[in-house]
Every structure is written in structure tokens, then in C-alpha cells.
Specification:
With 752 residues, the chain is an alpha/beta fold. The chain contains 29 helices and 18 strands. The chain is 43% helix and 12% strand. The strands form two sheets. An eleven-stranded mixed sheet has the order 1-2-11-3-10-9-4-8-6-7-5, sandwiched between helices. Helix 3 packs across helix 6 and helix 28 crosses helix 29. The protein starts with a helix and ends with a strand.
Length: 752
């Protein structure tokens, strides 16, 4: 203290005056120190004034729009009164749809800044800090204003298919039609350049007896969901006309560049012809079944449904943020129907693919659309790269596999995976919890392990309750993996959740509360072959009130034209009254009409090709019971048993070889020594027919096992196998065979 006194004493020596000390702070020598603080205060004041002007403009615009029904807002709906009675007004409104509470924080920051500006209590060090590094809240505030304007435009865009499809409840007439079996539908057929024949089926309302309305009613006349319309082909791509969010408009062409270059198109074309036609249907929120997926158009298809999924989620998020901002300004606890914008749980999109490599490509496409070239942040990206890459199959170089096999099984072929994704303003979050996710990407097996079976304690399927867009890509591969897994998952869609999961029920759409979510779900089904199992999924598991569109028809040229071996091919038709009875009829026809002739010693080296594993087990048990000389190869056979069975069959030690279709799908074995083939059912993939027949070439034969003149191919089919037979024979041959009264038809290689 002594030193301090001496120091102060020294300072007071001379002609120093007290007045000068008090007026020293605004002295010119210190202006350089306070310049940043003064500039920052001026800058903040200017920004606050701009925000106030924008806020007034938005309030005026909102008041003008609500002038028509402002008087009726005072009259509360009976149902809303009941909901408000059970709602705690003190409880803060929790929003489950938006991961970041940016809108609420923005409003709070505006109020704080106004108070700070009025009191002038900001300090110099805080001002300097704000000038050097602008706060995140200020950045969010500047971004939220245009987002709210976009949301306002979205709300007003009544012609937006998103608004048309999800905004309104179903009317009684349309609901009765949908619940009927079969529903009342109107079918329209169109012919488009790339998709070819397009069959559009739209449910139609049933006119029921209408009750007379009372003359005086306190309730407003309710608007119901309109009847869907047939999709129109896109000729000129306009983002605003297609209602594509402005956030991704600048990324569309760059993300689609490879597909445009592959089709020899300029970048100003934006979409390929196939993408235009697919998006014309998808953007109309109708179900789509496209059975002509190939390895050449796979990227075009994947890009199209990823664009639709991202656009759907951005519209959902924008609407919720807009409503959050409006609710933050309201003091009353009552919410009108306008603010119902959520489902029972958060996940809105489910994409199912068979392998990890396919999921990897889907996520990459979404990243290119949302945050291209690191313009935003991808959380857990390194972990994703490690989990979904690697593990490729080593393809043999000596006896190469077919080209389609190498393309299908390229990349990581693991079929047990599931991934949650969350879309925010500038961030794509991976590996999020399912109940915090917007998009789910999984395999049927990966979901089956979570959904579980009845009686299991740890099962969970509540996250499937509010799926609005379901994508089934490579659905034909699901049939080769385990079809029951897919059906089990589809049966657990839109069930009543067992827990609330933090849902704010005042924000849940009324049609979701009523259990009508299945009528609003859009299903996109893509496969490389047309199969009755897939059509059954579309007709029995999909109930979209907007209808469905089925593309493709019977091919003109079948797989029979690719058979190189000169061999007679016999098509045996048996009668069946229904698909279930066809299983028994097929077995009876085989053991009574086909098998006795094939057991002749001259008919050795016979391979029995069985597509269904259940039929495979039944034939195997019958062969064992009847002491038939046979060996077997299925997808569960070990390598040693496969090698032993192939050796015995080649050297005539076994008369029959029982061969499952799934082992051929996953291994593509080149079985040698085949003289006769029996297709117990037409193959799932038509090119498997020509592959198996071409294995009968002379280079693969045992010269002591028979002659070239003694070779046959037999196919068993009924009317429920016509789609599979059409892919083998073609349209013209199938028409002649179906119109004939004969039960056996023979074709020889080279016949037209």
C-alpha cells in the first residue's frame, strides 16, 4: 500500500487538476481504443432496425392473408376445445420434428438485442468480440428471415403436390372406397416415350347418402383431400413449377452431371428423359412400380428418388420451423388445425436396399444434393466410410463370373445394416437415433432384427408409425434374400405406437391420430424383373389414396433367343384354381407326369432347377423317401459338399441333381455334365433360363455320359406363372401359347 501511495502521490504532483481527470475518458487520445465498440453498436443498431422493418412487413402480410377468416378464429372448434382442456398451458411446446431449436433462439435473441439497444448496456469487450467473430445466433437470425418467407410461400402454394397430399383429411366418400375390398378405382393407360405403357389406377369416392346440414352452425365447412389426378409428363423443367426447394436448386445439375453426360445431354437439360418421366409420377405423390431397372439406368433411378426424398424432408422441415416461429409469438395455449404438421413419431422416409454398397451410394447421392463439396457439415462421415466400404468379393480371373453378377455384388455385400439420418439447415447427421431421424436406410434383415417377433421383449417398431415415403430399391433381390423379412416389416408399418416418445399431440395431424397414415404413404418400388410377388405387395400392402402407376409391359423378345444350344424346349401347362392350389398341382404333375419318364436310365444327368426353397425341401424329402438317386446343391450347402455333388453328377454316380435358384443367384456355379434340365417353375430372372441351357454345350459334357441327340429342356407352368413365362418366351410366343388348347408346347432354338 505504501508503494501505491507513493505512486499516487507522484501522479498528483505538478499542475494536475481534478476536472481534467473526470473529462479524460472522451479525450481524443482514447478514440482509437473505442472505435470498434462504437462501430459495432452502430452496426447492431442498424441490423435491429432492418429486422424490425422486415418483421412489420411480414406481420402486415400475414394479417392481410387472414382477413377473410379473422372473425371465425374466435369461435373454437369443439374438438380443439376438448384438446385444450387436457393440455397444460405451462408446459413448453416441444417440437420433435426439428433437431435444432434455431427459430426459437432467433426470436429470443431479437428481444435481447432490442433491450440491449434501448438500455445501452453493452460493454466494450463484448463489442470487440462481436466485431471480430459474429455470433452463430446472428447468422441464424439472418438466415431464418428468408426461410420464413419461403415457408410463407409454401403455405400459400395450394398447387404444391406436397400440400395437396398431406394437408387435408380424407372425406367420408373416399374413405369408404379405400376400405372396401377391392376399392373403387378408375384405370387410365398412357404411353410415354421412355416408360412405355403406363397404367395409372386412382381410387374414386363412393357417393353415400349425405345428411342435410343445419342452417346455423358454429363450425366452418371443412376442406377434404381432393381426388388425385393422372400425372402429366414434364416437358420443360422449371424448379418453381415442380415446387423444388430453393435450398437444393443450385445442386441439382452438379449432382446429376454423370447421368447427363452418360446420356450425351447438355447440362442445361437438368434431367434425363427417364428421370423426367419418373419424377412426373413421383412428384405427384402416387405409388410407382417400375420393373425395368437395369445396371445402365440404376444411377438415374437412384438420383430421382433421392431428389424426391430430400425435397419432401425440406418441405416438412420448413413448414415446422415456420409454425414454430408463429407459435413463439402467440401467448394463448389453443392451437388451430393449421399448426398440425407432424406425425406420431419423427421418421418420415424409409429406404430399403439389399446391400451396404447400395446404401452407401444412396447416402452419397443425398450428400451431393444437400451439402455438395463440403458446403455444409456431414457428421460421422468417417465412421460411415469405414462401415459401408470394403468387404468386396474377390472375383475369379480364371473362370470369370457373368457381367451382371460382378456388377450386382460389387462393393460391400453385407445385408445386415440400418442407418438413421437427420437433415438440418447446413448439416447432414448420420448414425442418429431412429426417433431423432428424418430418413432411415436399412436392409430387410436389419429392420427385422429390431422389429422382432411377437413375444420378444426387446422388439421395437414404433419408429415405423409415421412413414410417409417408402422406397424399395432392388426389390427382386429381397426375394432372393428372404421375402418373409420384407413382408414382416411391411406388416408393422403404421401401427399404434406403444410409447409417446415425447410427441406433442397438439401438433400431430388429425389423419395420423385417426390411424389413416397408410392411406397417405407413397411407395416407390423398383426391380429388374416383373414378378407377381411384387405386384401383390403393391396391391395388398400399399393403400395410397393418390393411386398407383405401373410401368412396363410384356417384352417383345424373351430370353429364349439367347439359348445357343440346339435343344428341344418343352413347356408343360397344368391347371390350378388359385395360387395356393398351384403349389399342390405343380407337385402332383411333376411326380406323376414328368418324374417317371425322367427316371429312365437313358435320361441320366438330369438337373432339376427349383426357384422356391419350400418346393426344394419338399422334392428333396420325396426323393429320399422314394430312394431316387440324386445329389443336392442349395444356398446352405458347404463348399466340400458342393464339390462332391458336382463330381458325382458329372461321373454318372447320381441320376438327378437338385439345384436351388438361390445358390445359382449367389454363386453362379458352372455345373458340368447336364444332359436334361427340368425347370420346376419358370426362373425368377429370365436370363437364368438361357444361362442354364447354355451350360449344356459340348465343352461341358462328359463324353461317356450320353449323346448330343439325347438332350431336353422341360418347363412346368400354370396361368399364375404367365409373367415369368412371358419374360422367357416374349409377347408373340406367349400369346400363341395362351390361346392354344394344348397342354404341351415345344420350341427349338432358332424358331421364330
Amino acid at each position: 500500500m505504501g508503494k501505491g501511495k507513493r505512486y499516487l502521490g507522484k501522479k498528483r504532483k505538478g499542475n494536475f487538476k481534478g476536472k481534467v481527470k473526470k473529462n479524460k475518458k472522451p479525450h481524443k487520445d482514447h478514440e482509437t481504443v473505442n472505435k470498434k465498440a462504437l462501430f459495432n453498436r452502430y452496426k447492431d443498431k442498424q441490423k435491429v432496425e432492418e429486422e424490425l422493418i422486415k418483421k412489420k412487413q411480414m406481420e402486415e402480410r400475414f394479417l392481410k392473408q387472414n382477413v377473410a377468416y379473422s372473425d371465425s378464429e374466435s369461435e373454437e372448434d369443439t374438438y380443439e376445445q376438448l384438446v385444450s382442456c387436457f393440455k397444460d398451458p405451462k408446459k413448453s411446446r416441444k417440437v420433435i420434428e426439428s433437431d435444432d431449436e434455431e427459430s426459437d433462439s432467433d426470436v429470443d435473441m431479437n428481444e435481447v438485442r432490442k433491450d440491449d439497444e434501448a438500455t445501452g448496456a453493452q460493454e466494450e469487450n463484448a463489442d470487440n468480440k462481436n466485431l471480430d467473430s459474429p455470433s452463430e445466433d446472428m447468422e441464424d437470425e439472418q438466415i431464418m428471415v428468408p426461410n420464413e418467407e419461403d415457408a410463407e410461400n409454401d403455405v400459400d402454394a395450394e398447387d404444391d403436390p406436397f400440400t395437396k397430399h398431406f394437408q387435408y383429411d380424407l372425406g367420408d366418400d373416399l374413405l369408404v372406397s379405400l376400405t372396401n375390398t377391392p376399392p373403387t378405382e378408375k384405370e387410365t393407360t398412357k404411353s410415354w416415350p421412355t416408360l412405355g405403357k403406363l397404367t395409372v389406377t386412382i381410387p374414386q369416392p363412393i357417393q353415400t347418402s349425405r345428411k342435410t346440414k343445419p342452417k346455423v352452425s358454429l363450425l366452418e365447412e371443412k376442406i377434404y383431400a381432393p381426388v388425385a389426378t393422372v400425372p402429366n409428363l414434364i416437358h420443360q423443367v422449371d424448379f418453381n413449377t415442380l415446387h423444388i426447394k430453393s435450398q437444393i436448386q443450385g445442386n441439382i445439375v452438379l449432382a446429376n452431371k454423370k447421368n447427363l453426360v452418360k446420356c450425351d445431354l447438355e447440362l442445361d437439360a437438368i434431367f434425363t428423359p427417364l428421370q423426367k418421366e419418373l419424377f412426373s409420377v413421383i412428384n405427384n405423390y402416387q405409388d410407382l412400380y417400375y420393373p425395368e431397372r437395369t445396371f445402365s439406368n440404376v444411377e438415374e433411378i437412384r438420383y430421382t428418388y433421392c431428389l424426391h426424398v430430400v425435397n419432401h424432408m425440406l418441405k416438412t422441415r420448413t413448414k415446422i420451423i415456420h409454425h414454430n416461429a408463429k407459435l413463439a409469438k402467440k401467448s394463448n395455449a389453443h392451437l388451430s388445425e393449421e399448426y398440425r404438421d407432424q406425425g406420431l413419431v419423427r421418421p418420415k422416409v424409409l429406404i430399403m436396399v439389399p446391400f451396404k454398397d447400395a446404401a452407401y451410394r444412396v447416402v452419397k447421392t443425398i450428400i451431393d444434393l444437400v451439402v455438395p463439396k463440403e458446403s455444409g457439415q456431414v457428421v460421422n462421415k468417417n465412421r460411415f466410410e469405414e462401415d459401408f466400404t470394403g468387404g468386396e468379393l474377390i472375383m475369379p480371373s480364371k473362370n470369370p463370373k457373368p457381367e451382371d453378377y460382378e456388377l450386382l455384388f460389387s462393393g460391400n455385400t453385407d445385408d445386415t445394416f440400418r442407418l438413421g439420418m437427420t437433415l438440418t439447415k447446413k448439416t447432414l447427421k448420420l448414425y442418429t437415433d431412429f426417433y431423432s431421424s428424418d430418413i432411415l436406410i436399412a436392409s430387410p434383415l436389419g429392420l427385422r432384427m429390431i422389429v422382432g417377433a411377437e413375444g420378444e421383449e426387446d422388439r421395437d417398431y414404433d419408429f415405423l408409425a409415421s412413414i410417409e415415403v417408402l422406397v424399395l430399391d432392388q426389390a427382386d433381390v429381397f426375394l432372393m434374400q428372404n421375402w418373409d423379412h420384407l413382408l414382416h416389416v411391411l406388416d408393422h408399418l403404421h401401427l399404434q405406437p406403444r410409447k409417446t416418445h415425447g410427441t406433442d399431440f397438439s401438433r400431430v395431424r388429425s389423419w395420423a391420430v385417426n390411424g389413416w397414415s397408410k392411406y397417405y404413404r407413397q411407395t416407390l418400388l423398383f426391380s429388374s424383373v416383373s414378378l407377381p410377388e411384387l405386384r401383390s405387395v403393391l396391391s395388398r400392402k400399399c393403400h395410397n389414396y393418390a393411386g398407383r402407376a405401373v410401368a412396363g409391359g410384356v417384352p417383345d423378345a424373351g430370353a429364349i433367343q439367347h439359348v445357343l444350344v440346339q435343344v428341344p424346349q418343352l413347356f408343360h401347362r397344368f391347371n390350378a384354381t388359385d395360387p395356393l392350389q398351384a403349389v399342390e398341382a405343380r407337385f402332383e404333375y411333376f411326380i406323376k407326369e414328368v418324374l417317371p419318364k425322367q427316371r429312365d436310365p437313358l435320361m441320366s444327368h438330369t438337373l432339376v432347377y427349383v426357384p422356391s426353397y419350400f418346393d426344394y425341401v419338399r422334392l428333396r424329402n420325396y426323393f429320399k423317401k422314394e430312394d431316387v438317386s440324386f445329389v443336392q446343391i442349395c444356398e446352405y450347402s458347404k463348399d466340400a459338399k458342393i464339390a462332391r455333388a458336382r463330381d458325382m453328377f458329372f461321373h454318372t454316380e447320381a441320376h438327378f441333381l437338385l439345384y436351388s435358384e438361390r445358390v445359382h443367384f449367389f454363386r453362379r456355379l458352372r455345373v458340368k455334365g447336364i444332359r436334361h434340365i427340368i425347370f420346376y417353375q419358370p426362373p425368377t430372372y429370365p436370363h437364368f433360363y438361357s444361362e442354364m441351357c447354355n451350360l449344356m454345350q459340348e465343352t461341358n459334357q462328359n463324353k461317356y455320359g450320353g449323346s448330343e441327340c439325347n438332350m431336353t429342356v422341360s418347363i412346368l407352368y400354370c396361368k399364375y406363372d404367365m409373367q415369368r413365362a412371358a419374360a422367357i418366351l416374349g409377347a408373340s410366343r406367349l400369346a400363341k401359347m395362351a390361346a392354344s388348347d394344348k397342354s404341351v408346347h415345344m420350341y427349338v432354338t432358332g424358331d421364330k
